[in-house]
Amino acid sequence: MTESAGNKNEDCHAANGVKPGRNGMVKNHHHHHHQYQKQDKVYHAACNGELYSRPFIESFEETPMLVAVLTYMGYGILTIFGYLRDFMREWKIEKCHIAREREEQKDFVSLYQDFENFYTRNLYMRIRDSWNRPICSVPGATFDLVERSSNDYNWTFEYTGRVVKDVINLGSYNYLGFAENTGACATAAGEVTVKFGVGVASTRQEMGNLDKHEELEKLAASFLGVESAMAFGMGFATNSMNIPALAGKGCLILSDELNHASLVLGARLSGSTIRVFKHNNMQSLEKLLRDAIAHGQPRTHRPWKKILILVEGIYSMEGSIIRLPEVIALKKKYKAYLYLDEAHSIGALGPNGRGVVEYFGLDPKDVDVMMGTFTKSFGAAGGYIGGRKDLIDYLRTHSHSAIYATSMSLPVVEQIITSMKCIMGKDGTTIGRSRIQRLAENTVYFRRRLREMGFIIYGNNDSPVVPMMLYMPAKIGAFGREMLKRNIGVVVVGFPATPIIESRARFCISAAHTKEMLDRALDVISEVGDLLQLKYSRHKVLPSLDRPFDETTYEENEE
Amino acid sequence: MALGDAWKQLSWFYYQYVLVTALYMLEPWERTIFNSLLITVAAMAVYTGYVFMPQHIMAILHYFEVVQ
């Protein structure tokens, strides 16, 4: 399979990605690597049986060695000073601002000695002003920020009383721009509040099942192309409370390495055996599936009751898109079930905004459980699960969230209904369609410009989540502060949400951003990038693992 | 003017040094400690070089038989 694809390396200059090329195979790589140095790897799926109808361009550039060494050095210096400060706090030379055990508990097992607490005390607190910033307006394309200052190095904050106005918002998950306080959605939600009030005061199973909820579920089912759907009040709770209802003891859960905390929590709560496969790596998944079916359960070797594969549509920390055609092919071959979490991809991918299934041109009926959230593209809150009617009927009676959690508040339901109708075009306008197109254009433009400037950007070319690598700990705080000084609000992420040296700034593109806003943001990012020396890219793209998963895969990285 | 430019350039270099070594995140007294330690170690290295360089150069020249 790989040899045949590797022999056709000669005439494959896919300059703009339209004509698909071949990925560099191990045997011929050293002859042709100079051709690939300046171009993205385009993975035409001839070696995957023609599963992909469009080029799948994803890149995760390797960390430059010097940057990695300097990052470790920076963390080392911070750790040494952290130990010094802990020593001073212990010996009462310095006042301790953070929680500690009481005198009587000193002989018990210590609560705050692990690395996470050390990191929080000594590293996170120093740059804490980049997070939890209070916003005092609707988080649309721009927002207003309440200014704060700190006199004791971020242990406490005071409000200066000023408000920073019109900060460009590159951090909100506002992909289609529905987080707004004017327009059809807001008016409809206002009318419903006046008519029905805000609280529902009951769970779905008792007195909290209103006709609006039924309308929402029918609409969501028709939006997704499935038989039936169910809506829940909280997106995190949708995952963590429903996976235990779907899998239990004796079942196997195969979960991606970089799955969200809600999926991990749901998998752990279910009591099933969990096995983790490498991120977006189909060879790893196939190996796990084959091992599971061949060997069965750990000691008894009985067959697994069911095998559930947990994946996400777009991974928000990497900006990568799941290889859905391959996952579905594997699922069908090995008779497993697929749980797809489309939190970030629903509304944001696909020509009609129907998510990652439509993006790849697949059939929604192939995905057994389609989960998503209304938080990101619909400007509301909550989650849904869609699938076959018997599955959803089972969940209505057996899900913890349906039995114990309060049902969704009605203004939120109305916001979702109105925005979903707008995206589908059912409200008679083309607003939804134009927003989806604008999001796609903004995404491609922003990613291309950032790549050209020389930053290291992770992820797929079509994903509206754009992680830009920062690496060094001081640059995390510096980037957040410098961008705010120039009136742009960004989200910076470090450990523990990312691996310790791979800290990043994560931009979320929105359909509400105009081209002028994006241009201004890009100019500022370039200026700050020059000031902080963030343009690390050397155009060496780490080849995505699209070949058999064995030792020879790693030889190629020696360039 | 040249002095102003040189000062700007130097302060940009200092800013980069402070960012890369993560001193940016530390309080001023911690920066003082670290900078003092670094300057002390560097000064010791320069002093050792100054004291022992003539001996080392004579030994090298002797080895290559340039001087008896």
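qc> DSSP finds two helices and no strands in chain B.
qc> done
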